[in-house]
């Protein structure tokens, strides 16, 4: 599998670089002009740049790999039963992008028979890029990175994108972790999962997500030594497009976090 993935990894990084270049007019020094947002039916925000980036990535994939499937946030799903399926989120964190908070990024994943085997997380504002692939160590800015050990949940730093995203019956699960960890970091969006892979944080939890929001996290975190699943400990895949995810850099803390979540789940 490792040798088979090599050309796909190169292609995925090319896609990420081309997406990054399309942010340039909006990130020029001394200004942060952004396109006018629209509100989607789910109340999330979208801009012309979201659509333009995904359209470009989809066209590149269709030309290079016409037999592959595509699962995109803005353009929908084609050939989801293909052996290989590309998962695209052109701007994960459109609201932070509009606000000028540099935690937004482009997320690209490749599924093989439904399982995430390549993940690229690219951040145009900070020039950070994480690349994960099955059977390989995760790279951050081209160098191997690793999660950190955490001896106890009471020493852990927890991240979540936004407490407002939790439904009323999901909040007790978040609170169970919040009350047991030492520090909490809010608003990190997808960047929080790259930082976990680099050993800067210990546990991450989120709700109200879709497959395109987290598919790249799977190979990135696993290749860095961490664990990521849904709130029940099940693997994340096309067959299990969970809306609730849990990641930890130390496998023991992931097991402990699952034990804390279990009594709080509806």
Automatic annotation (TrEMBL):
Superkingdom, taxonomy of origin: Bacteria
Residues engaged in binding Mg(2+): 73, 89, 91-92, 213
Enzyme Commission number: 3.1.3.15
InterPro entries per UniProt: Inositol_monoP_superfamily, Inositol_monophosphatase-like
GO MF term (any one): histidinol-phosphatase activity
Gene Ontology BP annotations: L-histidine biosynthetic process
Classification via Pfam families: Inositol_P
The protein's enzyme class: hydrolase
Cofactor: Mg(2+)
Keywords: Hydrolase, Magnesium, Metal-binding
Gene3D superfamilies assigned to the protein according to its UniProt record, in alphabetical order: 3.40.190.80, Fructose-1,6-Bisphosphatase, subunit A, domain 1
Family: Belongs to the inositol monophosphatase superfamily.
Protein name as it appears in the record: Histidinol-phosphatase
Species assigned in the record: Achromobacter kerstersii
Organism taxonomic ancestry: Bacteria, Pseudomonadati, Pseudomonadota, Betaproteobacteria, Burkholderiales
């Amino acid at each position: 599998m490792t040798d088979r993935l090599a050309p796909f990894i190169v292609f995925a990084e090319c896609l990420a670089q081309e997406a990054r270049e399309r942010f340039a007019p909006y990130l020029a020094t001394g200004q942060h002009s952004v396109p006018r947002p629209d509100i989607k039916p789910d109340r999330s925000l979208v801009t012309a740049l979201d659509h333009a980036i995904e359209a470009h990535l989809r066209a590149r994939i269709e030309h290079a790999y016409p037999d592959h499937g595509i699962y995109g946030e803005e353009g929908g799903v084609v050939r989801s039963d293909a052996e290989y399926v590309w998962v695209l989120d052109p701007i994960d964190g459109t609201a932070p992008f509009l606000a000028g908070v540099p935690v937004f990024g482009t997320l690209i994943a490749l599924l093989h028979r439904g399982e995430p085997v390549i993940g690229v997380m690219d951040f145009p504002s900070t020039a950070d890029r994480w690349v994960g692939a099955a059977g390989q160590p995760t790279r951050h800015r081209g160098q191997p990175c690793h999660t950190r050990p955490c001896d106890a949940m009471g020493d852990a730093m927890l991240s979540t994108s936004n407490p407002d995203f939790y439904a009323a019956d999901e909040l007790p699960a978040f609170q169970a972790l919040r009350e047991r960890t030492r520090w909490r970091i809010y608003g990190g969006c997808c960047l929080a999962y790259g930082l976990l892979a680099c050993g800067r944080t210990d546990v991450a939890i989120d709700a109200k997500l879709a497959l395109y929001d987290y598919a790249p996290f799977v190979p990135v975190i696993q290749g860095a030594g961490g664990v990521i699943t849904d709130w029940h400990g099940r693997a994340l895949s096309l067959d299990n497009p969970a809306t609730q995810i849990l990641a930890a850099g130390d496998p023991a803390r992931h097991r402990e976090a699952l034990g804390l979540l279990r009594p709080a789940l509806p």
